[in-house]
Amino acid sequence: MIEVQHITKVFGRHKVLDDVSAIFEKGKVNLIIGSSGQGKSVLAKCLVGLHEVTSGKILYDGIDFCMMSEIERRNIRTQIGMMFQGAALFDSMTVEENIMFPLRMYTNQTKKERLKRVDFCLDRVNLSGKNQLFPSECSGGMQKRIAIARAIVMNPKYLFCDEPNSGLDPKTAIVIDELIKEITQEFQMTTVINTHDMNSVMGIGDKVVYLSNGLKCWEGNKSEIMHTDNEDLYDFIFASDFLKGLQQAAVKQKIV
After folding, report:
1. Edge-to-edge strand order for the sheet containing 29-33?
2. How far apart are CA 212 and CA 214, in angstroms?
3. Superfamily (CATH H level) for 2-79+156-255
């Protein structure tokens, strides 16, 4: 579990996060949602230490990440898996080498042990036998699955995903969403996803935190979000007239 307590982040005179508190639960897919420029990425970067908070606490299973030494933070980071927007694979490395990279950086495993773990992760994302391909030989959906395999190769307790469905067609996006949810539940990770994709929210959103103008304006689950009385969140969810029509039709059907 990751708990955020009264986080504020200021860049110069601009307050990007303003007294944000939230709990990201173990074994669940926790989503940070909101329009562009509302603080989602900054919050995610604060959680992993890429930005230092101006004030507040970030607790990893009760331990304050903000107060840790660099050595202590390094230990936490070995327990964190990262899936970057666009997959961020190394073009000059094979699939096997990409997935093995964190193991070479942070463990003393033998090559045989590393290969065994790589093969396990490839099998888990349904890419067995693709070890020697290069990223350029893989489709966008395959690259996302490779990125997930690399993110879980260290058997992390915490998984962070930045816009995992970016650039994917709707069908492939659903496959990636379901894979993330399955892995989260199977390995009981605390998964945090930064997204603005409402399909992901409604598909796998166990816990949803909505940010607007640097404030946490709403917190709940995918069932509750459809019945929100928060006008700002409502406008975000039903940004298109088509979606508003669907929601109004659903309400009318219940009344009838």
Report:
1. 80-83, 158-162, 190-194, 29-33, 207-212, 215-220
2. 5
3. P-loop containing nucleotide triphosphate hydrolases (3.40.50.300)
d(C-alpha 31, C-alpha 40), whole Å: 10
What is each CA distance from 67 to 44, 52, 76, 81, 175, in whole angstroms? 18, 11, 12, 21, 38
**Residue 240: what pLDDT?**
44
Give the model's pLDDT for residue 241.
45
Q: Which of 16, 150, 160 is nearest to 96 (CA)?
A: 150
The parts of the chain modelled with pLDDT lower than 50 are 240-242, 256
> For residue 147, how far is the Cα from the chain centroid?
12
pLDDT attached to residue 81:
93
What's the pLDDT at 242? 42
CA dihedral sign, ordered 173, 175, 179, 185: positive
> Residue 254 has what pLDDT?
55
Find where tokens 């993330």 sit.
180
The 63-64 sheet, strands edge to edge:
14-24, 2-11, 55-60, 63-64
Residue recorded with tokens 């997935």: 99
Q: What is the domain partition of the chain in residue ranges?
A: 2-79+156-255, 92-155
- Which pTM was predicted? 0.87
Tokens in use for 3? 């708990």
Q: What is the pLDDT of residue 247?
A: 56
Q: What is the DSSP letter of 35?
A: S
